[in-house]
Amino acid sequence: MRILVVEDERPLGSAVQERLRRAGHAADWFTTLADARAALAAIAYDFLLLDLGLPDGSGRDLLREIRRGGSAMAVMIATAQDQISDRIAGLSDGADDYIVKPYDFDELLARIDAVSRRYGALASNRLVLGGVEIDLGRRSLSRDGQDVDLTAREWAVIELLARRAGALCSREQIEDALYGLGEEIESNAIEVFISRVRKKVGAGLILTVRGRGYRLAREGGA
Question: Where are the 4-aspartylphosphate modifications (predicted)?
Fold first, then answer.
């Protein structure tokens, strides 16, 4: 996923961005509302991890703006404000979840996965295509009953295509899901990842639509 982190505590923000990238997400990190607004205007994010107490205002103001604008982007508040009234206010403004600092990174990743699954297009967290089974809940893939070992970014490719099962994903959409701002992208990077995944899961799972992008094959390989 493409995740926007808005956090003014620099050691924490840097650590969260690095952990998200290691988990296969494309993560951008900013410390102010102004920078976050500019990023949201330029990039289509899948998920927002939002601190409330920021140098130039409250994260709740940004959250209300996002929801008034009709955005269905998943939003999780991450803040030291742990009163029940604070949680109720954040959820009422449109947040999907609320995590209190200091938090465990593994719990953060699990909560992000749980919230994002509710936004997915699949009716189930499991997708079976021929001999390949994709389990979004467990973040795992098996082929003919055998688990397949995928790197974080290889999994990110599969997850993106699975959440949009049957729909076309352009090269640019895949790049956005894999790389954050400032990360260097080689010209053939997406083709390399697709090739690696095909070698592990079978050439027929990911179809190329020439000049347009990629999609998962429907059951039966069509």
Answer: 51
